[in-house]
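Lecture notes, structural biology module. Today: joint structure prediction for complexes of three components.
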Amino acid sequence: MTRLRAGALTYLHTHRHAAAWSLLGPGMFWLTIFFLVPLLIVFAYSFMKRGLYGGIELQFTLESYRRFFDPLYLDIFKRTFVLSVLTTVICLVIGYPMAYVIAGSGKWKDILLFLVILPFWTSLLVRTYAMIFLMRDTGLINTWLMDLGVIPKPITMLYTEPAVVVGLVYGSLPFMILPVYASIEKLDHSLLEAAEVLGARPAVRFLKVTVPLTLPGILAGCLLVFIPALGSFLGPDLLGGAKHMMIGNLVQNQFGAARNWPFGSAVSFMLMGVVLISMLIYMRVQGREALGAMGGP
Amino acid sequence: MSDLRRLEKLARAVERGRLTRRDFLREATALGIGLSAAAQFLAACAKGEPGEKQASGGEGAAASAELEKELNVYNWSDYIAKETIPNFEKEFGVKVIYDVYENNEEMLAKIQAGATGYDIVVPTDYMVTIMQAQGMLAELDHAAIPNLKNLDPLFVSPPYDPGNKHSVAYQWGTTGYAYRGDKITGGTDSWALLFTDAKLKGQITMLDDSREAINAALKFQGHSLNTTDEAALQDAKKILIDQKKLLKAYISAPVKASLISGDVWAAQLWSGDTFQAQAENDQIQYTIPKEGCTLWTDNLCVLSTAPHKRAAMAFMDYVLRPDVGAAISNFVAYGTPNAAAMPLIDEEARTNPAVYPPTEVLSRLEFNKDLGEATRVWDQIWTEIKAA
Amino acid sequence: MKRRLPGWLVALTGLGFIFLHLPILVLIVFSFNASRFSVHWTGFTLDWYLKLLDSPLLLRGLKLSLIIAVAATLLATILGTLLALALARHRVKGRQGLEGLLILPIVTPEIVVGISLLVFFTFLHYPLGVSSVVIAHVAFSISFVVVVVLARLHGMDRSLEEAALNLGADEVVTFWKVTVPLLLPGIIAAGLLAFTLSFDDFLITFFVAGVGSSTLPLVVYSMVRLNVSPTVNAISTIIVLASTLTVMLADRFTRSRTALPAGARPKAAATLPA
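The predicted structure, tokenised, for the full assembly:
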């Protein structure tokens, strides 16, 4: 055993790259075969013809992409984009103050952070269901408001576009708070003190010192909210009543009952395109090291 | 059996190609109905397709081959009696995994996507044709399903499956709409209630089903629900897109709970499901609209990739038993195709014109047919409606 | 030095936290409500939890979810840790390409991951079932494990390893007796993250699960679509409790500096995502 070990170690010493590759190999293999290759197959499918009842016919066609640029589907794309931007903005407006307060909360910091991380780890399905439970016509909010005599009949909250946005914000808020918090925490307060000493008012200090310095966190948070929102499915599905289709629902629909895999593939690729462009913009603005600032999901 | 009922059955037999017009006229005259009246009556019914003559069901001993230990059934939701599966499991020693779907296309999509492992699926008439065309259905061994003889002749060798090579009728029904009688008065005889009544904004739903939703719009406009006419389809598309402003959601079987609770006041829904809901809230009523609607038969089929074919056919045979079939129909409130089970059907259901519609109503109804090439257009229209 | 926080800001934050947590709390509370249809409180009951035990579909889903999560976690954690070690300790040619490959699962929308794997499996005529779900879960979890473990590696004090090497231990011994114990809390935190991602996953599993392989989220989704009922509240409560426990565990492991008795420099909870 020792001889084998000695031999192996000698080999690894002299072939440094073998060591690296034995570590990289399995993981890379998995990712390439089970992540990259599937995406490539989808890309190929997007150029094929749909079979009569569904399925694929091996025949090159641009029909799926042409169909994508039909105003009907561009509308879905537009709606998805607008709702995602809206969600991001709302999350920023709510999330930044929260992150700021948490960063400055001293002994409460750990508990508050825990309270932010907790929903982030809780199943999105359960959280979306909670929204349904609250917002239905016979749900909690309407029942309480009616019991209190505030409204005569239920307000329709569910199955509307605002419901979808509320659901998206609810699901994404922790993703905004955490990166922003990370940035704010690193803030060098001496700079703020200097600004104060130099006579800047609180609002000015905030806008000209705090915000620029925490920009990496803000951008990271925006990215972490925007991209998942673009591809979201559960929110629009359960809260939108299948009436307010977003790109995610369209793709699911095409791979489901509509049985149009080429079209679904084409839509997926357009979505990926937008995601990748957003990533590139982000990296350009942040600089390459910023990927580290993003951390995990 | 009343004369009218007999007439209705005869008419359906003609419609399905089981009886020639001559035989019908002969029977009608025997009942004392004038020839011209009989001829008119017949003309009012949907035209049938010629079907082969075949021997119904297999006589002979049931297959004594060993059954597999498991069975995977993929059925519509809320479409079986509570005790059916447990009783089957007990009697045959087969473990049943039961999965549900909401519409034919969803089921087809799953099978197309390679979901091997299902043994039994329950496609509607037109979907049997489609699945057979794609080689998805196994040929049935009639020797293993001796209870086929219990099927009412009307359902033996149907136009969409001559010889019952691939399917056995399971339930049949209509697709009209359910409504809350206490919330809606008036206008409940027409599709207009669901499409154009602005007072009901936010209180109506349609089935999440491409064929059914478009069928309703087509019938509302006076077209056949099997039309491939481009203009008619675009017309229907427009109506459905306009309807979205009033629509609460596209939802199938699960809408029952909302009808019961009052979240929904009018819902496009199948006959039996409406009565299931009515059992929990008697304000719920059913309408077969005057413009007409879908008449359908759901069928048990075995997939060609089924891993447990013998158990599957044993299950089909089991369902065809009079007591089992009656239990199912009494629970789900749909029409039974099983003649031997008819005497065991609840009096209430047997005499309910909404469960077993009379002839003049049936003549307004249509069966779905496979649309061939036009399927692509329908699927596309449905996507556009959903996306709008 | 504690900064003074303006009152309105604190109030806003309070509202934000209420927004984050009230829906779930309400869900939990009403899982004990005796009334089936209405949200009026008619009495306390554990009936709905007992009903869960009666549902073979749910129990089976729970069992499957656990099995799949454990399998996926083990695989993903091992593969991801190895990847992280390679990235942190070795000069790798084509590093940028590798990093791009690693970033892909993190940024690709779940819907795209789901359908691409569906397409992949049907293309190969690979039967959808439990194994296809495990493969899928590992595929999207590896990158997250890498991120967590990498963060831990970058913050690690290498002097201990160098000391061991100087004292005559070879690479293998150093690895197992020094590196791994130091790394373990990070690995465990990554493992818990992978476990949660797998256990809670809905969309990707939706596309690659086979017949009879309905995991808990798939079953719950059907139930939610079917209708609002206290039984769904009950299973949701259980899922939330499980998540809470996992977070608390992961938190503890991220804070714990080392498995060695000697304490190293404490660090912020930086190994938790973001």
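Point to remember: Chain A touches chain C through 101 residues (CB under 8 Å).
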